[in-house]
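Quick one - first record:
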Amino acid sequence: MNHYGIAQWVDLARGLAPRNEQIAMQEHLAAGCSRCAQMVEFCDRLARTCSGMATRAPDFVVRRAREICQKRLPDHPQRTIRIPVELVFDSFLAPATAGSRGAWQRGWQALYRGGDCSLDIRIEPELHSPRASVIGQIFNHVQPETQLADVGVCLKSGRSVLVATCSNEHGEFQMEFQPQSRLQLCIFLDGGCKRIQVPVRRLTEDSPRRTNRLRPGRSPEKRLENPAEKD
Protein backbone atom coordinates (compact mmCIF):
# COMPACT_ATOMS: atom_id res chain seq x y z
CA MET A 1 0.00 0.00 0.00
CA ASN A 2 1.37 3.40 -0.97
CA HIS A 3 1.25 6.08 1.70
CA TYR A 4 1.03 9.84 1.37
CA GLY A 5 3.66 12.19 2.80
CA ILE A 6 3.17 14.64 5.67
CA ALA A 7 3.21 17.63 3.30
CA GLN A 8 0.21 16.22 1.44
CA TRP A 9 -1.70 15.56 4.67
CA VAL A 10 -0.95 19.12 5.87
CA ASP A 11 -2.36 20.47 2.60
CA LEU A 12 -5.46 18.32 3.10
CA ALA A 13 -5.93 19.60 6.67
CA ARG A 14 -5.56 23.22 5.46
CA GLY A 15 -7.91 22.66 2.52
CA LEU A 16 -5.16 23.31 -0.05
CA ALA A 17 -4.98 19.89 -1.71
CA PRO A 18 -6.43 19.57 -5.24
CA ARG A 19 -9.94 18.13 -5.38
CA ASN A 20 -8.97 14.90 -7.12
CA GLU A 21 -6.15 14.35 -4.62
CA GLN A 22 -8.51 14.96 -1.69
CA ILE A 23 -10.82 12.22 -2.99
CA ALA A 24 -7.97 9.77 -3.41
CA MET A 25 -6.62 10.48 0.08
CA GLN A 26 -10.05 10.05 1.67
CA GLU A 27 -10.43 6.71 -0.12
CA HIS A 28 -6.99 5.74 1.17
CA LEU A 29 -8.12 6.45 4.75
CA ALA A 30 -11.40 4.57 4.18
CA ALA A 31 -9.35 1.52 3.17
CA GLY A 32 -8.18 1.33 6.79
CA CYS A 33 -4.62 2.68 6.76
CA SER A 34 -3.87 3.20 10.47
CA ARG A 35 -0.49 4.82 9.79
CA CYS A 36 -1.98 7.59 7.67
CA ALA A 37 -4.93 7.96 10.05
CA GLN A 38 -2.50 8.92 12.83
CA MET A 39 -0.81 11.38 10.49
CA VAL A 40 -4.18 12.96 9.61
CA GLU A 41 -5.08 13.35 13.29
CA PHE A 42 -1.75 15.07 13.96
CA CYS A 43 -2.08 17.41 10.94
CA ASP A 44 -5.64 18.36 11.90
CA ARG A 45 -4.51 19.33 15.42
CA LEU A 46 -1.56 21.25 13.99
CA ALA A 47 -3.76 23.19 11.56
CA ARG A 48 -6.23 24.14 14.32
CA THR A 49 -3.42 25.28 16.62
CA CYS A 50 -1.73 27.38 13.93
CA SER A 51 -4.98 29.03 12.87
CA GLY A 52 -5.58 30.05 16.47
CA MET A 53 -2.11 31.62 16.66
CA ALA A 54 -2.51 33.77 13.53
CA THR A 55 -2.07 37.47 14.31
CA ARG A 56 -1.09 40.68 12.56
CA ALA A 57 2.60 41.48 12.64
CA PRO A 58 3.54 44.71 14.50
CA ASP A 59 4.09 47.76 12.30
CA PHE A 60 7.81 47.98 13.09
CA VAL A 61 8.28 44.35 11.97
CA VAL A 62 6.49 45.08 8.70
CA ARG A 63 8.67 48.16 8.09
CA ARG A 64 11.88 46.24 8.78
CA ALA A 65 10.76 43.44 6.45
CA ARG A 66 10.08 45.95 3.70
CA GLU A 67 13.55 47.40 4.18
CA ILE A 68 15.11 43.95 3.75
CA CYS A 69 12.97 43.21 0.68
CA GLN A 70 12.79 46.69 -0.78
CA LYS A 71 10.10 47.38 -3.33
CA ARG A 72 11.79 48.07 -6.62
CA LEU A 73 11.40 51.61 -7.88
CA PRO A 74 9.72 51.93 -11.27
CA ASP A 75 12.20 52.38 -14.11
CA HIS A 76 12.68 56.00 -15.02
CA PRO A 77 14.74 57.82 -17.63
CA GLN A 78 18.38 58.46 -16.81
CA ARG A 79 17.81 62.17 -17.39
CA THR A 80 15.04 63.65 -15.26
CA ILE A 81 13.87 67.23 -14.90
CA ARG A 82 14.37 68.54 -11.40
CA ILE A 83 11.37 70.62 -10.33
CA PRO A 84 12.24 73.84 -8.46
CA VAL A 85 11.00 73.54 -4.89
CA GLU A 86 9.91 76.21 -2.42
CA LEU A 87 10.33 75.71 1.31
CA VAL A 88 7.02 76.71 2.87
CA PHE A 89 7.63 75.59 6.45
CA ASP A 90 10.64 74.44 8.47
CA SER A 91 10.10 73.56 12.12
CA PHE A 92 13.71 74.47 12.93
CA LEU A 93 13.18 77.98 11.53
CA ALA A 94 9.69 78.61 12.86
CA PRO A 95 9.59 80.81 15.99
CA ALA A 96 8.89 78.89 19.18
CA THR A 97 5.62 79.50 20.99
CA ALA A 98 5.65 81.88 23.95
CA GLY A 99 7.15 80.32 27.06
CA SER A 100 8.92 77.50 25.17
CA ARG A 101 11.97 79.22 23.63
CA GLY A 102 14.28 77.13 25.75
CA ALA A 103 12.68 73.89 24.61
CA TRP A 104 14.59 71.24 22.69
CA GLN A 105 13.19 69.63 19.58
CA ARG A 106 13.92 66.03 18.68
CA GLY A 107 12.14 65.76 15.33
CA TRP A 108 12.04 67.94 12.23
CA GLN A 109 9.09 68.73 10.00
CA ALA A 110 9.02 70.59 6.71
CA LEU A 111 6.60 71.43 3.92
CA TYR A 112 7.80 71.95 0.34
CA ARG A 113 5.97 72.92 -2.82
CA GLY A 114 7.08 72.19 -6.35
CA GLY A 115 4.83 72.72 -9.36
CA ASP A 116 1.37 71.36 -8.57
CA CYS A 117 2.64 69.09 -5.79
CA SER A 118 3.29 69.57 -2.11
CA LEU A 119 5.60 67.41 0.00
CA ASP A 120 5.05 67.13 3.73
CA ILE A 121 7.85 65.29 5.55
CA ARG A 122 8.85 64.60 9.12
CA ILE A 123 12.08 63.10 10.42
CA GLU A 124 11.90 61.37 13.79
CA PRO A 125 14.75 59.64 15.67
CA GLU A 126 13.95 56.16 16.95
CA LEU A 127 14.04 55.54 20.65
CA HIS A 128 17.09 53.60 21.90
CA SER A 129 18.42 53.36 18.34
CA PRO A 130 20.82 55.35 16.14
CA ARG A 131 18.33 55.06 13.25
CA ALA A 132 15.63 57.52 12.24
CA SER A 133 12.36 57.43 10.31
CA VAL A 134 11.18 59.66 7.50
CA ILE A 135 7.40 59.90 7.24
CA GLY A 136 5.86 61.87 4.42
CA GLN A 137 3.05 62.50 1.99
CA ILE A 138 3.10 63.80 -1.57
CA PHE A 139 -0.14 65.37 -2.80
CA ASN A 140 -1.47 67.61 -5.55
CA HIS A 141 -2.57 70.90 -3.94
CA VAL A 142 -4.07 72.17 -7.21
CA GLN A 143 -6.25 69.10 -7.81
CA PRO A 144 -6.59 67.40 -4.39
CA GLU A 145 -8.67 64.56 -5.86
CA THR A 146 -5.65 63.37 -7.88
CA GLN A 147 -4.19 60.16 -6.46
CA LEU A 148 -0.42 59.88 -6.29
CA ALA A 149 -0.09 56.13 -5.66
CA ASP A 150 3.02 54.07 -6.44
CA VAL A 151 5.19 57.18 -6.71
CA GLY A 152 8.86 56.27 -6.41
CA VAL A 153 10.57 57.64 -3.29
CA CYS A 154 14.18 57.18 -2.24
CA LEU A 155 16.85 58.52 0.09
CA LYS A 156 20.18 59.18 -1.61
CA SER A 157 23.67 59.96 -0.44
CA GLY A 158 25.45 61.30 -3.49
CA ARG A 159 24.60 58.85 -6.28
CA SER A 160 23.97 55.96 -3.89
CA VAL A 161 20.39 54.99 -3.04
CA LEU A 162 20.25 54.07 0.65
CA VAL A 163 16.60 53.07 0.91
CA ALA A 164 13.66 53.18 -1.48
CA THR A 165 9.92 52.65 -1.42
CA CYS A 166 6.71 53.68 -3.20
CA SER A 167 3.80 55.75 -1.94
CA ASN A 168 0.47 54.17 -1.04
CA GLU A 169 -2.90 55.16 -2.49
CA HIS A 170 -2.92 58.30 -0.31
CA GLY A 171 0.55 59.41 -1.40
CA GLU A 172 2.00 58.44 1.99
CA PHE A 173 5.36 56.76 2.54
CA GLN A 174 7.66 55.78 5.39
CA MET A 175 11.28 54.63 5.51
CA GLU A 176 13.86 53.95 8.18
CA PHE A 177 17.48 54.93 7.65
CA GLN A 178 20.85 55.53 9.27
CA PRO A 179 21.30 59.31 9.65
CA GLN A 180 24.29 60.81 7.88
CA SER A 181 25.34 64.06 6.26
CA ARG A 182 24.05 65.38 2.94
CA LEU A 183 21.06 63.11 2.50
CA GLN A 184 18.58 63.93 -0.26
CA LEU A 185 14.97 62.77 -0.52
CA CYS A 186 13.87 62.21 -4.12
CA ILE A 187 10.28 61.94 -5.36
CA PHE A 188 9.84 60.71 -8.96
CA LEU A 189 6.79 62.05 -10.79
CA ASP A 190 5.26 61.52 -14.24
CA GLY A 191 6.73 58.05 -14.60
CA GLY A 192 10.14 59.23 -13.45
CA CYS A 193 10.46 62.02 -16.04
CA LYS A 194 10.39 64.65 -13.28
CA ARG A 195 11.62 64.64 -9.73
CA ILE A 196 11.38 66.66 -6.55
CA GLN A 197 14.61 66.60 -4.55
CA VAL A 198 14.94 68.10 -1.09
CA PRO A 199 17.63 67.94 1.62
CA VAL A 200 17.03 65.88 4.75
CA ARG A 201 18.29 67.44 7.94
CA ARG A 202 20.58 65.39 10.13
CA LEU A 203 19.19 65.17 13.65
CA THR A 204 21.18 64.81 16.83
CA GLU A 205 19.79 63.78 20.17
CA ASP A 206 20.29 67.31 21.49
CA SER A 207 19.30 69.39 18.46
CA PRO A 208 17.83 72.65 19.76
CA ARG A 209 15.21 74.76 18.08
CA ARG A 210 17.28 77.12 15.96
CA THR A 211 14.97 80.12 16.13
CA ASN A 212 17.85 82.59 15.81
CA ARG A 213 18.82 81.32 12.34
CA LEU A 214 16.06 83.28 10.61
CA ARG A 215 17.34 86.67 9.52
CA PRO A 216 15.15 89.69 10.35
CA GLY A 217 12.76 90.59 7.58
CA ARG A 218 12.91 87.17 5.92
CA SER A 219 10.28 84.48 6.36
CA PRO A 220 10.72 80.77 5.60
CA GLU A 221 7.92 81.00 3.01
CA LYS A 222 10.28 82.89 0.66
CA ARG A 223 13.13 80.42 0.75
CA LEU A 224 13.81 78.42 -2.41
CA GLU A 225 15.63 75.10 -2.04
CA ASN A 226 16.19 73.76 -5.55
CA PRO A 227 16.75 75.48 -8.90
CA ALA A 228 15.44 73.76 -12.01
CA GLU A 229 18.03 71.57 -13.63
CA LYS A 230 18.49 68.45 -15.65
CA ASP A 231 20.70 65.56 -14.58
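second record:
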Amino acid sequence: MPEARAGAEAGRGKIELRTTSRDGRLRIEIEDNGVGISEEKMPHVYVEGIGLSNVRERLRVLYGTDFLLDIQSRPGEGTVIRIEIPELVSTMQEVS
Protein backbone atom coordinates (compact mmCIF):
# COMPACT_ATOMS: atom_id res chain seq x y z
CA MET A 1 0.00 0.00 0.00
CA PRO A 2 1.48 3.39 -0.89
CA GLU A 3 1.88 6.03 1.77
CA ALA A 4 -1.16 8.24 2.24
CA ARG A 5 -0.73 11.81 3.44
CA ALA A 6 -3.13 14.53 4.46
CA GLY A 7 -2.39 17.85 6.08
CA ALA A 8 -4.14 20.97 7.21
CA GLU A 9 -2.61 24.34 7.89
CA ALA A 10 -4.12 27.26 9.78
CA GLY A 11 -1.83 30.24 10.07
CA ARG A 12 1.55 28.78 10.91
CA GLY A 13 0.21 25.67 12.64
CA LYS A 14 0.32 22.37 10.80
CA ILE A 15 -1.07 18.88 11.41
CA GLU A 16 0.03 16.06 9.15
CA LEU A 17 -1.41 12.55 8.97
CA ARG A 18 0.60 9.71 7.38
CA THR A 19 -0.33 6.07 6.95
CA THR A 20 1.79 3.18 5.70
CA SER A 21 1.29 -0.54 5.51
CA ARG A 22 4.07 -3.12 5.63
CA ASP A 23 4.43 -6.74 6.72
CA GLY A 24 0.80 -6.98 7.78
CA ARG A 25 0.97 -3.90 10.01
CA LEU A 26 -0.77 -0.55 9.58
CA ARG A 27 1.20 2.45 10.85
CA ILE A 28 -0.52 5.78 11.48
CA GLU A 29 1.47 8.92 12.32
CA ILE A 30 0.01 12.24 13.38
CA GLU A 31 2.50 15.09 13.53
CA ASP A 32 2.09 18.74 14.47
CA ASN A 33 4.41 21.70 14.74
CA GLY A 34 2.78 23.07 17.87
CA VAL A 35 4.20 23.93 21.27
CA GLY A 36 5.07 20.31 22.08
CA ILE A 37 4.80 18.56 25.43
CA SER A 38 7.16 19.42 28.25
CA GLU A 39 9.45 16.75 29.72
CA GLU A 40 7.59 17.11 33.02
CA LYS A 41 4.23 16.28 31.40
CA MET A 42 5.39 13.44 29.12
CA PRO A 43 5.23 10.69 31.81
CA HIS A 44 1.58 11.62 32.45
CA VAL A 45 0.17 11.99 28.91
CA TYR A 46 -1.22 8.46 28.76
CA VAL A 47 -3.16 8.71 32.02
CA GLU A 48 -4.21 12.35 32.36
CA GLY A 49 -7.04 13.67 30.26
CA ILE A 50 -9.63 11.83 28.25
CA GLY A 51 -8.29 11.75 24.69
CA LEU A 52 -5.13 9.65 24.80
CA SER A 53 -6.31 7.46 27.65
CA ASN A 54 -9.45 6.61 25.62
CA VAL A 55 -7.42 5.87 22.49
CA ARG A 56 -5.03 3.64 24.42
CA GLU A 57 -7.88 1.75 26.11
CA ARG A 58 -9.74 1.22 22.82
CA LEU A 59 -6.57 -0.10 21.17
CA ARG A 60 -6.07 -2.47 24.12
CA VAL A 61 -9.65 -3.74 23.89
CA LEU A 62 -9.42 -4.28 20.12
CA TYR A 63 -5.86 -5.65 19.82
CA GLY A 64 -4.83 -6.83 23.28
CA THR A 65 -1.07 -6.29 23.44
CA ASP A 66 -0.62 -6.34 19.64
CA PHE A 67 -0.45 -2.56 19.17
CA LEU A 68 1.95 0.32 19.60
CA LEU A 69 1.06 3.81 20.79
CA ASP A 70 4.10 6.04 20.99
CA ILE A 71 4.42 9.77 21.57
CA GLN A 72 7.54 11.79 20.90
CA SER A 73 7.57 15.50 21.54
CA ARG A 74 9.98 18.39 21.70
CA PRO A 75 8.91 21.57 23.48
CA GLY A 76 8.67 24.41 20.99
CA GLU A 77 8.90 22.06 17.97
CA GLY A 78 5.85 19.78 18.02
CA THR A 79 4.66 16.26 18.63
CA VAL A 80 4.54 12.97 16.70
CA ILE A 81 2.08 10.25 17.70
CA ARG A 82 2.59 6.79 16.18
CA ILE A 83 0.01 4.03 16.23
CA GLU A 84 0.77 0.59 14.84
CA ILE A 85 -1.87 -2.12 14.59
CA PRO A 86 -2.41 -5.36 12.67
CA GLU A 87 -3.64 -4.67 9.16
CA LEU A 88 -7.16 -5.95 8.62
CA VAL A 89 -7.54 -8.08 5.52
CA SER A 90 -10.96 -8.48 3.98
CA THR A 91 -12.14 -12.06 3.86
CA MET A 92 -15.15 -11.25 1.72
CA GLN A 93 -15.12 -12.83 -1.72
CA GLU A 94 -16.44 -11.08 -4.76
CA VAL A 95 -19.68 -12.59 -6.08
CA SER A 96 -19.95 -12.88 -9.88
